[in-house]
Specification:
There is one protein chain. 31% of the residues lie in helices and 17% in strands. The chain has 17 helices and 20 strands. The chain is globular, with a radius of gyration of 23 Å. Bound molecules: flavin-adenine dinucleotide and NADP nicotinamide-adenine-dinucleotide phosphate (NAP). The site of flavin-adenine dinucleotide (FAD) has 36 residues, from helix 1, helix 2 and helix 15.
């Protein structure tokens, strides 16, 4: 369906990733337009086309549940799909549900101002268009604002610099090149082994080593796929009842100290081979709440690393020792540790010898210089708030969102911000985010937001807002959940500490998806508790 009047719509959706695409479909009966900065749909899977990019959650889970026929028709070629397959899937969904007519690609939203006189957002794009809209659904992504460290003298460097989240569509020829990769998070671990195969020499600049376990990716077993398809709906329902909306798995029955050493090792070995990072984090009941239990699992992983990497000094550097396992995203890897046994790969410790700037021919650290032809920044994102903060958003009485969030984000249910009426977020601050499988949890949040909009329209209302008091309640809930876990001991994008100067505390809801969903539903069922709806 075409948009009736593109200057004056009911709903603007920002972002055509998996959340935005589903929002467009779910809200199709309204006059709705979707603005997407990229030249194509798929969000994360449009942008992150670096070699090795793939999911760390099985594709049978990380896929849409709203289209039951598609669920049966689509075949994932591998257990953990790669970027190309996920982008193909997003495009297929856009075509199948005839979403393209309403998507404006290559159209970044640069500013939004709430006009109190007419209760409409004035949304401005970088092309200079202004659209009036009753609601804005920000499906801008939690991991969509790439972060490159602001080292000086970038313009001096005569080689090429790439960020993994802005990898060129036509790929990059790295054969015969000396490549420096900075960053060893989930992305760094995926891209490095792929680069190592192509380049003359790969320098991996590591500040903090990552906990990782083998993905065990392989071609899809038809019998496994059939079993999922035969039980899809029941499994999806079960997934929503698990902490991380993932793998329907048995919860642990014991704390670590309740098991003998042999039992502990058997449990950990099974978790190591399970192909699910969540399984490692719940090997025992208390992995994420008890330091000793966590250390047991952490040391198990370190021993695995020592067993794989031949050079003992390199192995030791690769062993994470400064934070609890699982307190930042536990990575899934395909040959990362083995890669350090190659002659053309060098691990550089930039914790003890920090990168201080670019030079004409490479990178300099406090104590050395590295000659490089290409620099690959696998340095992550200004996560969770970054995409929203990069838009100038002015709410009631010209209140700026950047100012409001200067000391950290405040939200109600991760969905609304006081003073910014009719603005609804998907994967906003203080939602389960990376503590959950984000495609299905995003779909759930779209349904939640759509329900709010449907009920506003049913009741003939004009404006929905939340309150500072509700934001305070949510902050308490988020803090209460975080306090019981070991997450608070770690600096990462979960608390914004990966970005120099970024303020605020823990930005992820770690009370588990079922509790999050239940609190969201309860608020709405309880007469829109924490919201203010008006005519
Ligand atoms: C490399 C990588 C791998 C990941 N792997 C997994 C995984 O295995 N499992 C998992 O659960 N999650 C994973 N994630 C998280 C992933 O982001 C989510 O699973 C999911 O794709 C989020 O979808 P989304 O639509 O909410 O956001 P996104 O996919 O990030 O889409 C947001 C879109 O909004 C657009 N946008 C932002 N700002 C503007 C603006 N101002 N104007 C116009 N458009 C704008 C962006 O261009 C982007 O296309 C991964 C993330 C990354 C970066
Ligand atoms: N499906 C998957 O397997 C997959 C793949 C990629 C991404 N993801 C998702 O995306 C999230 C982000 O992953 P990401 O790897 O892109 O980002 P990330 O986890 O934030 O990792 C960024 C890396 O860059 C390093 N870095 C940043 N600034 C640096 C500096 N100034 N000097 C040296 N090193 C620096 C960080 O070191 P420090 O740790 O010391 O800060 C870290 O190793 C993941 O947590 C996950 O949720 C998933």
């Amino acid at each position: 369906m075409q948009i009736a009047d593109v200057k004056n719509v009911d709903i603007v959706i920002i972002g055509a990733g998996f959340s935005g695409l589903y929002a467009l479909h779910r809200l199709r009966d309204y006059n709705v337009v979707c603005f997407e900065a990229g030249e194509g749909v798929g969000g994360t899977w449009y942008w992150n086309r670096y070699p090795g990019a793939r999911v760390d959650i099985q594709s049978v889970e990380y896929s849409y549940s709203f289209d039951k026929e598609l669920e049966q028709e689509w075949s994932w070629p591998e257990y953990f799909s790669g970027q190309a397959e996920l982008e193909r899937y997003a495009n297929h969904v856009a075509d199948r549900h005839k979403l393209r007519d309403r998507i404006r690609l290559s159209t970044r939203v640069v500013s939004m101002r709430f006009d109190e006189g007419i209760n409409r957002w004035q949304v401005q794009t970088e092309k200079g268009d202004t659209v009036k809209s009753k609601y804005v659904v920000a499906a801008t992504g939690a991991l969509s604002a790439p972060n490159s460290p602001p080292w000086p003298d970038r313009e001096l460097f005569e080689g090429e610099i790439y960020h993994t989240a802005e990898w060129p569509r036509d790929g990059v020829d790295l054969s015969g090149k000396r490549v420096g990769q900075i960053g060893t998070g989930s992305t760094g671990l995926q891209v490095a082994p792929m680069l190592a195969e192509q380049v003359e020499h790969l320098y991996v600049f590591q500040r903090t080593p990552a906990f990782a376990m083998p993905s065990g990716n392989r071609p899809m077993d038809p019998a496994y796929e059939r079993a999922w398809k035969a039980n899809y709906q029941a499994r999806r329902r079960q997934m929503l009842e698990t902490y991380g909306v993932s793998m329907v798995m048995e919860l642990p029955q014991f704390c670590a100290h309740e098991c003998t050493h042999e039992e502990q090792m058997a449990i950990l070995e099974e978790a190591w081979n399970s192909q699910s990072a969540f399984k490692m984090m719940i090997a025992f009941k208390d992995v994420m709440t008890d330091k000793a239990a966590n250390e047991l699992v952490s040391e198990f992983v370190r021993q695995k690393i020592r067993g794989i990497v031949n050079n003992p000094a390199t192995a030791e550097l690769l062993c994470p020792k400064t934070y609890p396992l699982g307190s930042k995203r536990l990575c899934i890897e395909n040959g990362y540790f083995e890669m350090f046994n190659r002659k053309n790969v060098t691990l550089v410790d930039v914790r003890s010898d920090a990168i201080v700037g670019y030079t004409r021919t490479g990178l300099r650290t406090t104590g050395a210089h590295y000659d490089l032809d290409v620099i690959v920044n696998a340095t992550g994102f200004d996560a969770i708030t970054g995409a929203m903060s990069r838009i100038e958003i002015l709410g009631l009485a010209g209140l700026s969102l950047a100012k409001k969030w200067a000391d950290g984000p405040t939200v109600w249910l991760g969905t609304m911000i006081a003073g910014f009426p009719n603005l609804l977020m998907i994967h906003g601050p203080m939602t389960p985010g990376a503590q959950a499988q984000m495609l299905t949890s995003g779909e759930w949040q779209v349904d939640f937001v759509a329900r709010i909009i449907d009920e506003m329209e049913r009741d003939g209302l004009c404006r929905i807002d939340t309150t500072i008091e509700a934001e305070r309640l949510w902050a308490e809930e988020v803090e209460m959940c975080a306090q019981h876990t070991l997450h608070r001991f770690t600096d990462s994008w979960y608390n914004g500490k990966n970005i120099e100067g970024k303020k605020g505390g823990f930005m992820i809801y770690i009370g588990g998806f079922p509790r999050f969903a239940q609190l969201c539903q309860a608020a709405v069922n309880d007469g829109y508790k924490g919201f203010i709806r008006s005519a």
